[in-house]
């Protein structure tokens, strides 16, 4: 509960309208700058990086009339994805997932507030996720400029949701690598890896599953924040979410079957080991018995006095040993 | 995202009406041909093979007023089956599955657009799947000619859905072969096969499960694209989909029970191996002990001086060995 | 798709009304007979055995105005149980299950068409399932005569559904026999039997589960084919179906626990085997070592020259062997 | 189907009203007595013990206008719990469970019919379950007397439902005893016990689960048999049922985890056994080899002629044996 | 059923209003005090610690017009969480969970009654859970004073629900500790711990799962006990409950995977043990055979007379033993 890191908060305000020149980007570094600022274009997008500057959040909250519970949810980096409709604005909570350079999956809390003609976005860290969208807004030809704030929110959601495709792909690859590794020889480190995969799946699931509900609520859109035109695009995002949830479920089944596979291969190996021991015992026991017999000290043991007795016995042993070996080889027992 | 292979796109336009002569088939090879073309019969069916020619798609999209998101979904070969109702047309996404010569299951992305008096179909490759329907249209007596575009779409859906019957049958057969193989002797290659079956099942599932929802949406048909007459036929396709989903679930249970069976048989074998080792040890250990005893060097060991001592001991050993062997045989221990 | 066997099709027409004499049974052997036939009583029941005579089916279809899809479903012996309401009649598909003399469960496709004053039944084979109902109709006092065609359909459904009780009972018995057999000693043949039971359960499930939906649809009865009076009876059949589905689920849990049980008992046996081997080794290894020690050829080994050395060692061996044996017996290790 | 035992049927009629004296209890022993009987108080409760006297049932059925299907359900001792609303009365089927002296769980079929001013109850056997309620009715101060027949039915339901608490508690205790027994040493008899627990759970489940639906239907009470006042009490019973179903589910999870536990402990023991064998082999094999080496008959074996050779070897053996033993002890391997 | 411990019951009455001075706290020690008491401020909060004084409960019940079933539920310390709307008040049952000093999870039954301008709370024991809220009420600036009784109930619910976060965190930690312990070496005590975790999870689940329904019912708030303002806060509590249920489910999956992991690691160890035995047998068996061969008593055994025979054999043995050891080491078999 509360910001996880303390980057200096930096607010970026983008004002835009339908006209070719109707675009302006302002960077705020002090609270007082922002409080007095009067925008000149009809549509606003205010982006805040870092959540440590609680005073700034409060100023923004007051200016846009946000409910205290909204501010609380913006600050709660463990908040589950959700949509809440307030009087005059919609509040959307999401998780932005990404695969870092070490191949680990990490996630970040992102909040979006959509008002009648403004969009507020709150990120934990200054990641460059929205840069592309900002560039798009600069071009006066782009759909982003022609459509309203609701279309901007769609673009943001689409961006965030598409990130899950990459994450699921990375997980799927790890899963297949692990499957190959297990098939070529199970070892306990793989169990740890299966366990780790399971946890990561759960982590992703917590960000992804609630998105279905989020998109559903947005599509129903009882307070009419999205125009019919944009609704078609939301439906598209919803489809992506459903498709990814299905992939996630399939992946989960796969991970479960990995554990089963591990156990089966373990048990297989055990069988092979057992058989090897049986084969060894079967070959050596009769030979040892024979040696033991001719090591007995009976007075009358005619074979002991035969000239070729010793060699005959050695030969016999060799024949028994070899034929047993060949027999087991033929049965492919080792 | 984007076409998987780059066959030269080829558009085929079929125009037809109720009259006996009201049928014409035109093949387009250049974009300009199509743009200027004016159809002479009331009902149209435009079929496009291959998705590489994006310009053509754009021309078609503009001519029939398709939404950009529809064009995107037509090109996205990983798109999940779905129906979307737009203003003036319904857009249907499906997967066409087939079993190739190697017995592998492969699938293809097929899109259908049903307008008030036209049908557009988009396929990844020029497979001959729809040839039979095209032939049917040529006959002025066929139901296809008498009914409208909605009935044509039903025929296409029926064709695509029926393909799943073949695929499920092929899977069911592979499953039973595997079951027999496991019962006659489990080996790790079968585990790989079970895993492969599981993946194929998931692959089929992803194409088949969403069909239930697709057919449901079409049956509700809130925008009234299908006449009551055709609705009865859609209900029939829906039934087939439900039946196939049930078969799929049954198959999945079967695959799961294969793994259980494998494990049980493995453990059974282990038991047999163990018993064999125990039997061997039980037979040879006493004999080796006896040989060891008469190999001791005590001065006073009366048996050693008996005339038939050696033979008696050999005979005793044979008796012990044989009777133990017979005992275990009788208990069917090996 | 299509009839499984080619018995000569035989149509039986029963006409009846409320009056004491209002009953007549006619057997048709040729198509033309039937086409010209004019019934004399208000209520009709036409029963067709065998589905090979497709011409007859077409004649019946034309006469009673059946939709081509209905005829298709009547012929499709793999059709899943369902109800479909058409304009003027209800079409019901069911599976008739039975346990044959070999204790195997087999099933048959039965179709029922209920019109305003007629009932059509279509069976794969001339089984005597409906004979009792036919006899009932002959008696002018029976409820069947007093009530209409809807009550006749209830009686047919009740008959078909009750068959499942017998089948589930037979399965339950097989399941308990198997449980006893496994408990008294697991062997791989039982695994085959578990697998077979599972398949049979799935087979029964496919006929039984959809019945709930069928009965539900009939009870809602939006087209008003059943009178309120008969509705009470349908509710009763619905109850039976629900009860049987619950029994089926319970049976399924039981079959699953059989496999678990098998595995546990296997592993138990393995433990016993292992222990036996350990006991054997523990007893014989020290004795063999002792024999080995006194078989060494050192010049100075005082015990070898003792008068009772040999007997003392033999005695010592016996004491060690016996005491170990008694110790393990006391611990109930073998 | 049909009564399980043939106790002489005994009908007890309790008539009561709001007044202090308005209470009378009559015992019927012959059919004719009952047929002519005219009650003097406004509210009736007729209780029938034993279901063998079918004639009596028919008389009661005729007198209170019960539907033939209701009589059938009253007689069917395997009937699943349910509610059915008929014209003028509600019919409720339940199972009365109890733990007998042997700790076994047994159940009995109980039917209740609630009319506008009468209650009929049908029990398999004359158990004293309702005695307490009968006593309550005698007191003119009791709520039972002040409220109507609907409150009497609530009291009966509450009584029957509360019985499940005892049964679940008994099962929970058996489950915990078994868990302790397994933890202190798994043996196959426990598997039988787990299996038995599972079956009992299913048995209880069949009586308990449908109660949720029963109470739900009664609460909806579309035919208005229960006054608003009594509805609050029904809601309370519903809560109890939900709570017990949750306990049942928890118990079921527990039983499943018992089997897992059994398997894990089995496998643990196997490991211990295995280790013991390995330790034994590791200790004795080198000693036996040494004895074997000095038992060889080479001419030149200097050690054999050393004075203390024998004792040195014996000492060496003891040192090896002891140090290995101590080593394994230190590693807590046996 | 009934209070679990018999602390002397102590009632605390807090009266408050919107004014700065409108706050008063009264402690009741005798029944008569309370009966005559007339409050001076518009809003009341009556808190009762301990449930042993049934007379007090009855007095409170009479004074606030509580239904007998409500009093029963307040006393039933095993009552499942629920909401019930009565005429004039809402009754809410909850479980207050906490982690005690021994790390054990324990829970307590808490009941809340919300009337139009009063709140009653009933606790099993005088825990200090609500002290903070009481302090908050003292401050005339706090939201608690500005809003009505409904907001006070929200604050109580929020407090109780937040406790589950701590409990789930404690469980999650125990789960991870156990996972580490199992990975570093499975032993049966861990099985006991897994079992204990499972039971605790079920215990928590029984308190937490029904909360979703409770919050849902409160949010629907058909009887309008909560103002729109407060509804936003209830929605927030609902979100927390959903998030915790998801964490609970994830935890449950984790506990299940612990058991799987245990089994896999056990089986792994078994494999290692088995291999060790095989390696030992493979090394010692040939050496013992060689010693046995040269212990035979044949007259003609040339090697025995070779000068360096004995040393050659010893050397050969050493070479065989060492090379086998090195071979197995290289294969990392022990």
Number of helices, where a helix is a run of at least 4 consecutive DSSP H or I residues of chain A: 10
For this structure, the quaternary state is: homopentamer
Shape call of chain A: rod-shaped
Instruction: Please count the beta strands of chain A (DSSP E, at least 2 residues each).
Output: 7
Separation of termini of chain A?
A: 60 Å
Query: Could you name the ranges of chain A where pLDDT drops below 50 across 5 or more consecutive residues?
Result: 1-7
Largest sheet of chain A: 7 strands, mixed
Structural class of chain A: alpha+beta
Please give the most extensive interface between any two protein chains, plus how many residues each contributes: A-B, 42 and 54 residues
Rg of chain A, nearest Å: 35 Å
Q: Which strand order do you get reading across the main beta sheet of chain A?
A: 2-1-3-7-6-5-4
Q: What is the share of helical residues of chain A?
A: 55-70%
Membrane topology (chains A, B, C, D, E): Multi-pass membrane protein
Organism (chains A, B, C, D, E): Iodobacter violaceini
Subcellular location (chains A, B, C, D, E): Cell membrane; Membrane
Pfam family, one (chains A, B, C, D, E): CorA
